[in-house]
Design goal:
The protein is mainly β and 70 residues long. It has a single domain, classed as SH3 type barrels. Helices cover 11% and strands 39% of the residues. The protein contains 1 helix and 6 strands; from the N terminus they run αββββββ. Strands 2-1-6 form a 3-stranded antiparallel β-sheet, with no helix packed on it. A 3-stranded antiparallel β-sheet has the order 3-4-5, covered by helices on one side. It is globular.
């Protein structure tokens, strides 16, 4: 999963995506600069807020591409 996420984050041009962990709550990534990918954790930060989410890589069950923002 880490390699797949790295590929998505480094895509040029970047294509936003939604990841879904086992908890069922989906998290959308619209900017690769607001993501920190570690060995076992993924941190996603949300713009214009103090909100962030941390997900264990082994708990991500699906990743789907979203339409790019226009």
């Amino acid at each position: 999963m880490k390699e797949h996420l790295l590929e998505l984050l480094n895509r040029d041009p970047f294509v936003p995506f939604r990841m879904s962990p086992t908890s069922g709550e989906g998290h959308e990534v619209w900017d690769p600069n607001l993501v920190a990918l570690g060995e076992s954790l993924l941190h996603v930060f949300f713009p214009r807020s103090d909100r962030s989410v941390t997900v264990r890589l082994n708990q991500i069950v699906s990743v789907e591409l979203l339409e790019p923002a226009k």
